[in-house]
């Protein structure tokens, strides 16, 4: 860098300089120069997967005795199961060394099923809104390929299946990867071609799924693995998939999941925790734990409290409301006293707010009050999951 006196000379940039990624220090007091820092790779938010580093677990950090499909622990990850063992799903601190990850998702077999029936399966998956994926140009001649990358550790070695599912057009594509060494973190990548048939709907509904198969019966394994996009054929989805449910010694851990446009994997995109949490809150929000305040409001009558809840971020859709049943979990406080209460939903007002009510003992109509979680087990959940 040339200097004039003790300050750097101004440098004029050409389009070629910018294309070559030259980093220039310049006198920013003048319009003649500007500081540039070209970052290699794709832009921010290239990872379609939310919570890929497994940092966010609003519901629970561990749930045992899982035998049915649902969202149990880490945000945005659903376990889908049909009669294939019993499982504990948890947020684990077991992670690949030196890769920057602090948490992983773990599924641990607690009741084995070594002989799956034809229709049995076990899948870990995440679902994506179509309106976030229009840039993939699916259904056109310019459809972009997608590459999934992730770290995996499994007691069971052998062939595993990763699948993309287009739920708008009933199409899918499957790719295999191999766990080579038992109980050892391994880095895997699989690339899915672009699909020129079937555009994804431009809305907030379920359009695309990334599915990690962990076990499957013959309904899903008896054909030929469908490694190109096509109409979904059950027999071709998970051909070759090992069964991690065949022993209670088995577990499966995964972290650093990234799904991005292109034919090669880039470094994992670590996001600040507040950004990751905000993205998860679009799908699920909760009030949990002793002394957590839910909302302010007032006594509509001597035995009925009504309050307004404003969601922390706008939710994907009008959420489903659930709360503990029984009088041991919540309490309404007013200036005339307090009362144990049973909480219910009064009305849902779309994606930003709702009214909540609580049936109380005798208090004073017209008084202001507050609704609070009374016990450590109390919870009020709002779910807009796909």
Give an overview in words.
- The protein is 4% helix and 41% strand.
- The chain has helices spanning 15-19, 273-281; strands at 3-4, 7-8, 62-66, 70-71, 78-82, 86-92, 104-111, 121-129, 146-154, 158-166, 171-179, 186-192, 206-216, 230-231, 251-261, 284-288, 293-301, 304-310, 320-323, 330-334, 337-349, 353-359, 368-373, 379-383.
- The strands form five sheets. It has a seven-stranded antiparallel β-sheet, with no helix packed on it. The protein has a six-stranded antiparallel β-sheet with strand order 3-6-7-15-9-12, with no helix packed on it. It has a six-stranded antiparallel beta barrel with strand order 17-18-22-21-20-23.
- It folds into three domains: 1-38, no CATH class; 62-280, Galactose-binding domain-like (Jelly Rolls, Sandwich), CATH 2.60.120.260; 283-383, Immunoglobulin-like, CATH 2.60.40.
- The protein is mostly beta strands and 386 residues long.
Main β-sheet: number of strands, strand sense, barrel status? 7 strands, antiparallel
User: What overall geometry do the principal axes of the alpha carbons give?
Assistant: globular
**Low-pLDDT segments, ≥5 res:** 1-41
What is the strand tally? 24
CATH class of the largest domain: Mainly Beta
| Tally of alpha and pi helices | 2
CATH superfamily of the largest domain: Galactose-binding domain-like
Q: What number is the mean pLDDT? A: 91
In order across it, which strands form the biggest sheet?
A: 4-5-8-13-10-11-14
Helix/strand-derived category reads mainly beta
Order of helices and strands: EEHEEEEEEEEEEEEEHEEEEEEEEE
Question: Which percent range fits the helix content?
Answer: under 10%
Distance between the termini: 54 Å
